Amino acid sequence: MDTLFTIDCGDVLLREFRVEDVDAIYELTSQPEVYAFLPDWRSTREQRLNWLLQYEIPANKAFLSALPNIIDQNYLKLGIILKETGEFIGFCNTGLKEELREPNREIAYAMSKHYINRGYTTQAVKGLIKFLFEQTNVERLNTIVQPCNVSSAKVIAKCNFQFIENIEIEELVFAHYTLQKEDWRKSKKY
Fold it and tell me: Exposure pattern of 3-35 as b/e (b: 16+ CB <10 Å)?
């Protein structure tokens, strides 16, 4: 069996998706607290399994095999795994966000309602940022957040993203934030 790509983030690990995650991802993306902000992730279990097998796992392999030159690679989708129990409690991804001006590499994430407000999401996002800035040719990261998503706004602030502008995507308003590699390197918080 292949060793799965993993990033140690403190209390949690980021680990590439595997087929055995299907039920955990399905349960997570069925939570109203998640699909309210990530409606494209809502699916049936069968759709989720198909997406894992046909798209997400192959895309992860392609992304990882392209390191460090990932400019043209779309997504890397990683589960947030609680070290203490090995449980899949969320996900933290990077991908190209077509609606944003280039360079348009985005970070997106979701956490199970059972594990919010414990710092796990911030640890995961900081871990992915560190990996992308240290191990790839990425110079700038983006994230977008609906203004009513207070929890995500707090994570973004803790990760030193800077507000750029409000943008409209599919008739919804999002706050657009960026983080430059140069600014990240100057920060002592990582």
Answer: eebebebeebbbbbbbeebbebbbebbeeeebb
Alpha-carbon distance values, 162 to 13, 74, 108, 141, 177 (Å): 25, 23, 15, 10, 5
Q: What is the CATH number of domain 6-139?
A: 3.40.630.30
> Which tens digits make up the pLDDT trace of 45-100?
999 999 999 999 999 999 999 999 998 888 999 999 999 999 999 999 999 999 99
Amino acid of residue 188: K
Are 21 and 52 in contact by the 8 Å Cβ rule? The answer is yes
Residue type, 27: E
Q: ω before 39 within 30° of 0 (cis)?
A: no
**Domain extents for the chain?**
6-139
How far is CA 5 from its chain centroid?
15
* Dist. CA 17–CA 52, nearest whole Å: 8
DSSP SS3 for 174: strand
What are the distances in angstroms from CA 84 to CA 15, 32, 81, 89, 134?
15, 26, 9, 12, 27
